[in-house]
């Protein structure tokens, strides 16, 4: 179902539930993995994914279509992730690096990475990036999102995003090389 | 010599190598989300109109209701015949009305047949209030009164 059809049906109370169900089915996987890459842990990603769709439900009626539905949902998911990570830091009075260390521990416990040393180092390097830079890196490297769309999701200029991604790549390469030596 | 790591030479994966969720996770997720949004979508009919208002309007309305409650309770308690102060006001009115009755008229009433018969309890009260009244109102000599008093158990003697 096209986004436009979903929006039209959502505005009709008789077909609202059906339309929303279609919307969740269409975007759930993208939202889940976008969130999961940021918080690593499945349980956290599950909670946040549900929260994202509840926010979508609450605000979809007021969605003005300035951006595409996909971009709008991504923006909500991004804000949820950043709020979650910063509230975690505030709650436990953690400095920036400690959340990265906690995420790294969760990553190391993940059986999917067993045996792949370079990939593990790469993932550790990504988790050492500041949250917003990690977000930019994930959107560009994994999702291959165009910079213009990233600018809509993050509310940052294209130039700043390019610079951020470039610095992120340099930091990652530097970390992996240091760990390999 | 080792080749330095370069990200663009590393095989790109569509996702980081994290364990995927359970196989039926994405089948169940829409249902779980729908369960969480439905209660909010169907508010109780009685409060539906209230819930549909914007948050600032709800706050303002609640404040007005609270203020009206205070004003209403203040008005009820302050007016004559109102709630808790009514008993005090009635007692004050009764005392004022009794004080306004002329003394001669009150004596006439007590001596007439309409007045209830004076008892020993009245004797005790009047004695405490005004010692000289007993001689005027009690039909009996001092000796008879003293004899009546002597017959009372000691605990009931007020002299």
TrEMBL record, chain A:
Pfam families: Sigma70_r2, Sigma70_r4_2
Signal peptide boundaries: none
Residue ranges occupied by any RNA polymerase sigma-70 region domain in the UniProt entry: 23-90
Keywords: DNA-binding, Sigma factor, Transcription, Transcription regulation
Claim: Ligase is one of the keywords in the record: no
Domain RNA polymerase sigma factor 70 region 4 type: 121-172
CDD domains: Sigma70_r4 (cd06171)
InterPro entries assigned: RNA_pol_sigma-70-like, RNA_pol_sigma-70_dom, RNA_pol_sigma70_ECF_CS, RNA_pol_sigma70_r2, RNA_pol_sigma70_r4_t2, RNA_pol_sigma_r2, RNA_pol_sigma_r3/r4-like, WH-like_DNA-bd_sf
Single GO term (MF): sigma factor activity
Gene3D superfamilies membership: 1.10.1740.10, Winged helix-like DNA-binding domain superfamily/Winged helix DNA-binding domain
Gene Ontology biological process: DNA-templated transcription initiation
Record family assignment: Belongs to the sigma-70 factor family. ECF subfamily.
Protein name in UniProt: RNA polymerase sigma factor
Species for this entry: Hymenobacter jeollabukensis
Automatic annotation (TrEMBL), chain B:
Region: Disordered, residue numbers: 1-20
Ranges of biased composition (kind: Basic and acidic residues): 1-12
Full protein name: Uncharacterized protein
